[in-house]
């Protein structure tokens, strides 16, 4: 490695906009029909999330005992959002109702309205969720849409007499696919 590779000036020149900030984001939930929106928008109370992973599996094809790696199918990990809980329990209640329409607590039944679909339609319990990354100037620079998304798990909310923090919980999401949109390039990258 050449000594010039350690130049701080070359590093600064390569990071022209100063680097993307992980705190500049917003999450938007699009709730299915029949599930009322909470009184507080999730975009204000989602504290943390991630940009989705992208994984293409592989499988081995053998020729005379030698393995050759061949690209396989794409798989999608779960996606998590950490949400502040307000005293109205608005978002928590909406997510619990959404999950209750998928699988009832006491009867282990499903709301037939959310599962009735026309041929080719997505099941009505699935929806679209979006995470947007912003620049330091407040411009949308990249967005990810999760298609066929639905909440699969809600974490506990810890209660503690000695705690002085705002309650929070995590929602784990399943989804069918995601797409990325480079806002400043107007280019869409499909993942399915």
List the uncertain runs.
Answer: 185-192
CATH H level: which superfamily?
A: Hcp1-like
The total tally of domains equals 1
The level-1 CATH class: Mainly Beta
Radius of gyration: 21 Å
General form: extended
CATH fold-level topology: Pnp Oxidase, Chain A
What can be said about the biggest beta sheet?
A: 8 strands, antiparallel
- For the residues shown, what is the average pLDDT? 86
Number of helices: 4
Fraction of residues in β-strands: 35-45%
Percent helix, as a range, is: 10-25%
CATH architecture: Roll
**Amino- and carboxy-terminal Cα gap:** 40 Å
Give the ordered list of helices and strands.
HEHEEEEHHEEEEE
Number of β-strand runs: 10
Class by alpha and beta content: mainly beta
Write a concise keyword list for the protein shown above.
192 residues; disordered C terminus; two-stranded antiparallel ribbon; 4 helices; single chain; 38% strand; mainly beta; Pnp Oxidase, Chain A; 8-stranded antiparallel β-sheet; 15% helix; 10 strands
Write up this protein:
The chain is mainly beta. The chain has a single domain, classed as Pnp Oxidase, Chain A (Roll). The chain contains four helices and ten strands. It is extended, with a radius of gyration of 21 Å.
Walk me through the topology.
Elements: H1 8-14, E1 25-29, H2 42-45, E2 46-48, E3 55-63, E4 66-75, E5 79-84, H3 90-102, H4 112-115, E6 127-134, E7 140-154, E8 168-174, E9 177-182, E10 187-190
Antiparallel strand pairs: 1-6, 2-5, 3-4, 5-8, 6-7, 7-8, 7-9, 9-10
